[in-house]
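Researcher: Structure prediction, please.
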Amino acid sequence: MAANDGIKTEGPRYRSRDRVRADRTDLLYKDIPEGETLMSIKDLHVVYKTDESETTAVENFSLDVKKGELVSIVGPSGCGKTTILRCIAGLLQPTSGTITMGDKLCTAPGSDRGMVFQDFALFPWRSVKQNVEFGMEVAGVPKAEREERAMRYIKAVGLENFADSRIHELSGGMKQRVGIARALVMHPAVTLMDEPFGALDAQTRNIMQEQLTRILMHSERTIIFITHSVDEALFLSDRVVILTKRPSTIYKVIDVPWERPRDRASPEFTKLRRDILEYLEDQNVMSDDAGVVSRKKPKKGLGLDRFKNREEPKGRSETATSATEQSPEEKQN
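Model: Predicted structure follows.
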């Protein structure tokens, strides 16, 4: 090989002990304390262009996401919730604006952001357990640890009796639960969930919400959660981001003032849910230009102003559940 071929042969060698495993990218940000800003989204602007037109989907969207919190995003149908999530995941480049994790600019997909898609995105030729193991397999996790972790999260989503089943043998709701287990088992720094429980029946949806609540109470999971359900957002979230209709921007960010677990039937829960729903219903009403006249006038002062932002997140229990306890192999890594 010629000496002047432009190939660098000298310099600091890469040491394997310097590497953070791809299945534990949460460790990249271990120096950021819980409750401090982990992700910062600044002035996000998304315009879809065709030969004939331009459509502004998102406009001036800015949000700081704290480590260890679940932030839900709700808004009128078609307002751009999934567009925002795809930008965070690196699957869509915004027209302008920045997204940073710690001091790292996010411009492409990365293992520090795990995604739960609406459409499952599973490998049909693999079993349930093999699908959940896939990310760890690529990351080089030892087989014994891989199998133990996979079964732990398969059990957490209630599919332990279907671990060896093929994907085509599962219902839509069961497939979505496989996707959730696959994302959580990788320990991403931020988990992105795009209506993860939308395909589940009402009973299973409530069970999965309860399970996710337990995970949040006993771990430092950071989750950005897209949902159409205000009830679900209030039940799960530390904060709820309410969007306007397209072009989407933030109408209000509400700090949910109740500790987990929460009582959906309480008067306070019901009142806040009703206030948010009234706003969303007003935003979803078709305009008079479309030939439809609203039968009710938009309301002012929907009662959301009484919820002020808190400076610090609520404390979390130090007790771990079986679904979130780290194995000895994980603790060493």
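Model: The domain at 19-112+190-287+294-304 is CATH 3.40.50.300 (Rossmann fold).
Researcher: Thanks, that helps.
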